[in-house]
């Protein structure tokens, strides 16, 4: 039933994707959104998958491929890690990714990134990595990272497609459009490098206050809304010469 609805959705709001070639003659940046144990590793926490999930494992695999390419080229990478204090809940979700827990750390496949000189780690305590980059003095770690590295094209991967990835993309697009992120020109969401969680309706109905969250449906909606905000959606990302 859900798969039939998803097909109807895709027919009603079709999402055109593109094969995007990253230009070699300018700086490309990569942002990882919450590819951490608490959201991706089976049994790692309240919001972690309870069993292996193909969309999530595929996201990790594709993200790791991009990460290695960016590291080989010594290009800038920023990794957002969801990290919360126990006395600051994030409704409507149960406690997750608490400070000091392994939930808030990168998945094992990406843990090696912590020692790479081109990688900036930013622990955030909210959905939106852009807002989570704000400092008390009004500066923004992400905005400074874009400007200091002269990033023109930004590639975004991670979880969840329709929540933290989308929130970050929306804020970044708004900031770019207002001229706060110069010289940034393009924000690109790599669809195969994104994933969201699956929480079927029949399960949600038996839990007070729970919201149904069909995975493929919400993944499509998240990508569609990111494109609606002006981001480019790509099903393939490569480096090369951009044809005029």
From TrEMBL:
Record-given protein name: Isochorismatase-like domain-containing protein
GO biological process terms on file: pyridine nucleotide salvage
An MF annotation (GO) of this entry: nicotinamidase activity
Domain Isochorismatase-like stretches: 30-198
UniProt superkingdom: Eukaryota
InterPro entries xref list: Isochorismatase-like_dom (IPR000868), Isochorismatase-like_sf (IPR036380), NIC1 (IPR044717)
Family to which this protein belongs: Belongs to the isochorismatase family.
């Amino acid at each position: 039933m859900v798969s039939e609805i998803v097909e109807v959705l895709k027919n009603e709001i079709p999402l055109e994707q593109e094969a995007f070639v990253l230009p070699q003659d300018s700086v490309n940046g990569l942002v990882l959104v919450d590819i951490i144990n608490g959201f991706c590793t089976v049994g790692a926490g309240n919001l972690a998958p309870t069993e292996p999930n193909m969309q999530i494992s595929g996201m990790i695999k594709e993200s790791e491929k991009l990460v290695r390419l960016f590291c080989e080229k010594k290009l800038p990478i920023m990794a957002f890690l969801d990290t919360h204090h126990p006395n600051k809940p994030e409704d409507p979700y149960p406690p997750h990714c608490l400070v000091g827990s392994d939930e808030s750390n990168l998945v094992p496949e990406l843990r090696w990134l912590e020692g790479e000189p081109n990688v900036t780690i930013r622990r955030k305590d909210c959905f939106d990595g852009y807002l989570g980059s704000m400092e008390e003095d009004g500066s923004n770690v992400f905005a400074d990272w874009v400007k200091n590295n002269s990033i023109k094209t930004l590639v975004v991967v991670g979880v969840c497609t329709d929540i933290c990835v989308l929130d970050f993309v929306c804020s970044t697009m708004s900031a770019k459009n207002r001229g706060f992120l110069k010289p940034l020109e393009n924000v690109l969401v790599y669809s195969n490098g994104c994933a969201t969680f699956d929480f079927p309706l029949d399960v949600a109905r038996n839990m007070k206050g729970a919201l149904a969250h069909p995975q493929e449906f919400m993944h499509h909606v998240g990508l569609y809304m990111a494109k609606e905000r002006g981001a480019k959606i790509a099903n393939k990302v490569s480096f090369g010469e951009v044809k005029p």
